[in-house]
Amino acid sequence: MLKLVLFISLIQLSSAGDWDVVSKFAGSMNQYFYLSNGRLQTVANEITIRKKRLSQYLGSGNATYNYSTNDLLMNPDIFDNGEVKPFPTLVSELGFTGALGVAKTVYHEMGHAEWDVLIEESETNRDQEFYKLITTKIKPWMEKNLTKVDDKWLALMEWHGYYYGTVISSVLSDWQMTLLLNGVKTDFSFDENLIRSNIRSKKITVEDFGKISHKPLMKNLQDTLEDTYGERCRSFSVDVSNGMYDGMVSLETGSWEDKGFQSEWWDAIWEHMRFNYSIPSSRDDLIYSINSSETDLMEKLAILQHKIWDELQLQESEKNNQEQDSDTDQDFENEEDLDSDKSSNDDEPSFGDF
Prior knowledge:
The chain is mainly alpha-helical. It has helices at residues 2-15, 19-33, 38-44, 54-57, 87-119, 125-145, 152-181, 192-200, 219-222, 229-232, 263-277, 283-292, 297-347; strands at residues 48-51, 63-66, 71-74, 79-80, 83-84, 237-241, 248-252.
């Protein structure tokens, strides 16, 4: 009886999956970048997530997904008490670029796991439709065109993983850049000098206070505000192993459409990812999400912007008063000169006196 209870307990434990290992990280990605957790939780509960041992870590990448054992092994440095650290903690330790690299890697490898345990298994109708497209259209194209790669399934899975990482990287980079140009640092402190400069140059007006604006962005970024991440993330490098001893082959996806890779196939992977992770569709949509988030950041920003605005208005008023005083003094001096000239002329004999 004891053995039966122990066996059932082990089944329950294994079926619980490893969502708890990534839940804090995923929660922070939802809080700051508006990515939904449901799909990530479903994947995590089907696999095992743990730290790489030193022997596994040396000479390999930061993370590895094993399709045979459903194990995801990751860099031990990103764990704290057995859990992947939340994004703000990673930023404080690694800087934003380092934390972005971790997020990109996590979603890349979770993309492999998603492919393995959900897409290939046609977990949902969307998975089934996407998998059908992969097997009937995309894989045959790769078999015809990716002649340097022996394992076309590996190429497919890496294309999927690298696409996920590229989209996540683009969203996070846009988030950082948009906040920074609005005077908000990645630790959510404020760059008062930049905010003052934006207001003084009228990049930001009173109507913009209390929200993140696209106006401080460079013109080329403003011109592409509504371009979707699906459209922007079609060009990246895919590193694929070419046999046991031949090393890696780097595939540049930017040239694929020239070889007949269909635009609707890119649309398919984008829509599949966007639906499952609720990714902001564009830079414009990302800005809307930032402004709609339920935090006190916008309130704090508005208070600071109004404070700086009042300071600038006061400085402008004092400057105008000084200029007016200066003009008044000059007028007074001019009047004194005229009076002096008039007095001198009165002392001189007139023409009729001669």
